[in-house]
Amino acid sequence: MKMKHIAALAGSMTVLAATAHAGGYVPPVVEPAPAAPIVIEQPVGDWQGGYAGATLGYAFGGKDRVGLTDSASDSLLGNIGELKLKGANAGVRAGYRWQKDRWVFGPELGFEGGDIKGDTDGSIGGTDFSAESKIKNVLALRFKTGYTVAPDTLVYGIAGVARADVDYSLNDISDDYKKTGYIVGLGVEKQLNEKWSVTGEYEYANFGKEKLDFNGLTTEASAKYNNLKVGVNFKF
What InterPro entries has UniProt attached to this entry (predicted)? Predict the structure, then answer.
């Protein structure tokens, strides 16, 4: 009997082994780990370095009311009108820029001259007066801070200090003066290639107030104007 049991058990194990061999080994299914996303760095362009350029502009919207005061009594005699400064201008500039990621910043020195002027005339107490103001030139140190909205396009803000040489006259009596003020504005620059770029800018210039004397009559000049400019830069 024992031998019969052993034989039956051996037969059963043989059948099971054959069945397992016929089906083959099925390994467990393992879910693959998700692949890390591929981040493509967007180019930011190359703006760092020195440059030089030139500008053409047109000034407008300058308002300077001409009021006359008696120097001896310091009493206001009246107003003869308003000087509206406007006119074409041209300039040269040179600067240097640093770049950190998309941010670009640096100083720029510029010199501009042209035909920015205004004149007016009127009468006070039966006496005729005529006045004229002309911006002969402006020397400015600007600081520009920008952001690259595209690899070849920079949008920037402008803030700086400027010194104007102004020719002011009343009834053909001239009293020139120099005055320090400020310039603020916005601009955009577009690269044409590795060296050349073009710019468009809006600026507001304000040179404060200056008291002038004309043979016993005084007035307070306040030169200010808006300026739209286009320009070209060459990168070193």
Answer: Beta-barrel_OMP, OM_autotransptr_brl_dom, OMP-like, OMP/PagP_B-barrel
Phi, psi of 25 (to 5 degrees): -85, 130
With CA atoms as reference, report the closest residue to 197 among 146, 231, 229. 231
Distance separating alpha carbons of residues 183 and 209, to the nearest angstrom: 15
pTM exceeding the 0.85 threshold for the entire prediction? no
Give residue limits of the domains in the chain. 49-235
Strand partners, 112: 91, 138
**What is the CATH class of 49-235?**
mainly beta
By the 8 A CB rule, do 93 and 231 touch? yes
Which residues contact residue 223 at a Cβ distance below 8 angstroms, ignoring those fewer than 6 apart? 62, 64, 85, 133, 135, 164, 166, 179, 181, 206, 207, 210
pLDDT tens, 199-224?
Answer: 999 999 999 999 999 999 999 999 99
Model pLDDT for residues 148-180, shown as the tens digit of each residue? 999 999 999 999 999 999 999 999 999 999 999
